[in-house]
Amino acid sequence: MVNFCRLTLGGEQETLHANKYQVVTNNPMVADAFGERCRVVFLEYGSDRDVIETVRDLVHQHHRVLTAPLAGSVKPWETPYRSVMVSTSKGSAIDTTSLELVEFALQIISQSRERLEPTKPSIDRDFQIIDLSLIESALPSVEAIGRV
Amino acid sequence: MKLEVGYIDIKGIRFGDYNAVEDGILIVNPEPLLEPVLEDPLIKSAHFEIATPGESIRITPVKDVIEPRVKVEGSGGVFPGMISKVNTVGSGKTHVLRGMAVVTAGPIVGFQEGIIDMTGVGADYTPFSKLHNLVLVMEPVDNFKQHEYEAAARLAGLRTAVAIGELARDLVPDETVIYETPTVAETFKEEWKHLPRVGYVMMLQSQGLLHDTYVYGVDAKRTLSTMISATEVMDGAIVSGNCVSACDKNTTYHHQNNPVIHDLLAVHGKKINFVGTIITNENVYLDDKIRSSDWTSKMASYLSLDAAIISQEGFGNPDTDLIMNCTKLEKQGIKTVIITDEYAGQDGKSQSLADADELANAVVTGGNANEVVILPPLDRVIGTLDYVDTVAGGHAGSLRPDGSIEAELQIITGATNEMGFNRMSAR
To answer: What ipTM goes with this model?
Structure first.
């Protein structure tokens, strides 16, 4: 069983995040960098599949996916980290584009061969940095607009 | 735009006590070339090494490959906005040191950089094994931030290439080729009316601090899709800042020598009417993808294209941009051919792309990046083998005790290039 640790930063703090987006991640560096900025669903011991499945749950609750679930040219079997930005607001129905994206991402992950463990702590850190830089690259776009 | 490109063939590189090109030999005096590189506080050390085709040399980890060029006549300078002033390039005269490259090497992101073998099986898979390479090996200071050091290493490589290119300013070219791109009005002239109006959609990797491409010095992820002249690209208007996926990232050399552009220009006015080049980004944010692909299709429509070639960079979510570009053009009646590569598993049986559509029915592949290769041990390593176990395509145990490497093709720089700048494909 995967042990999920949901870091919502507490109910009272959550209300301070009147933000347009939330981030689902299993990357501690992303949880750290975005914790002050928005709601973070941090799956500390979760896999990339757990991240995407959590995003799918949110899509079922009518949230929209805002960033590509398989961001970057880092292959699913290489990196252990995934971070996805999801809208805070809910639509009146399931967003079909979001659903197609997460289902397709899950399909790709299930087709991928088993991930190989990084051999060095420095490489693990590099995977975290790349994943962080990918999700950070969406910030100017998401913060510039009035809606998501 | 009209650009006269004078090619000076380089037949060898050697160290000396001055910098010059003499009888096709590049003579390199490292000290004055390294001085500006070492002025950057993020670069702890730097030195040059020479790698000649056929030598038993393995270069790794490779960041970028750059062809030295110099603007001899016309406005602007090479790598506008990045090294030279931002003025428009693509007209006048440019000299090229053909047959060589400046290769930047050294650690940036542990798992991402590639390999260039100068001999053996690996050499067959990279076009850069056929070049005389001046390798700039750099080491960052301790506790560096990757994205800051990436900029330092990128600029060091470009500055070095500019300094080497400057040596070609007064040389007499071995071959001169004139490249000319038409205005939109000219593409409607009577003698080309029977030819299909073809455009080129060039997708640029733009997903994050280490997945970036720069156009006239602008980070492509902050741009809308736009048009660029083929000759501007030849003058270095597009520069790689990309540290991912060795096999299918477009190095600066790929941009300077974009084969789609060269092939389209070669048949322009004969088999096709090459109307123009659209550049578009590959962002992480989904609205950006939708906006950019919408914009690309709008521009293709403005140009009244009949057909377009779309080239991709990278893998994964860029496949979504690729399919969006393809389908939006197809739905307007513009026929497309996409150039991509495949991650179809080591047995080649898995789905090749992370996105697909039945309208994407004309596909050129650069090969399967998951194909396993065994690279023999080579006598000399330029750079370090520290990362071979962890670069994309390598894994724990990739580096065997005898120095040979078992890994996927994606470890090799340029192996499955999605501009078609290599020899692999499939029918």
So the answer is: 0.76
